[in-house]
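Hi U.,

Before I forget, here's the chain from the pilot set. I'm dumping it here mostly so it's searchable later in email.
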Amino acid sequence: MNKIKYILLVSIFTLTMSCGEDDTPQAERLGEFVVEFDNIVGTKQMSLKTAGSTDYNFENNQGQTFNLSTFRYYISKIKLSGPNGEVYEDEMKVDANAANVKGYYLIQESEPSSSEISLKNVPYGEYDKITFTVGIEEDGVVEGAAGGVLDPAEGAWFWNWNSGYVGFGIEGASSASGDANKGFSIHIGGWKDIAPAAGETQRFFNNVKTITLNLGVNAKVSATQKPQAHIVTDALKVLGDINFQDTYGVHSPLAGKPFAENITTAFAVDHVH
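Structure:
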């Protein structure tokens, strides 16, 4: 009799514990995943100088010294995926109201708070890959007013309807610059390919890039776990083999195409915790 009671008590305890672990409705099993972008210049941490400064603290692949006064880029369409079929896609929305613009992020070295993106309502599970877009694609290039980080009145760099946004902007100065003031500005943008008409040399390019990175671990999202992925962005890789003597002003999709190709190798996962 005592043995039967013992077995019954153990069964009830096990059932109670199981129910306690799984009693959260599936629709509420949502957590948070944080993505942080850390900008570097080769092996050095990035730091900005005042525009026009002659304090050159970096060196490019040509051995030319330079500094940075502006470093900024758009991140959009963030997607997480896992080994067991888990998928999360950040909500996207463009609106004239800044509070309603969702899924578009402007990372600016001058604003440290902009480097951290908190993804909400991520389904519980494990994630080992992250995909994101660098730049603003067609669905973000709307005719008419756009709010938040897409609003030119609030600092967004928008060329025109055909060219769209400057998806990646780098400005600074170099001792080797061919500019009279030793400055340089590399503005990379363009959201569609347009073949030139007969007799035209101008052409628009789609310089928006989509990047997928392995996190290196299975990052678990749960009621008690909020992973944080640190992604480094290397300015030297974006600049590539630039020679500041003859390349110091890039302000069109055509001129920015070589730099846009470099963007695909400029991002890497440093660690996840």
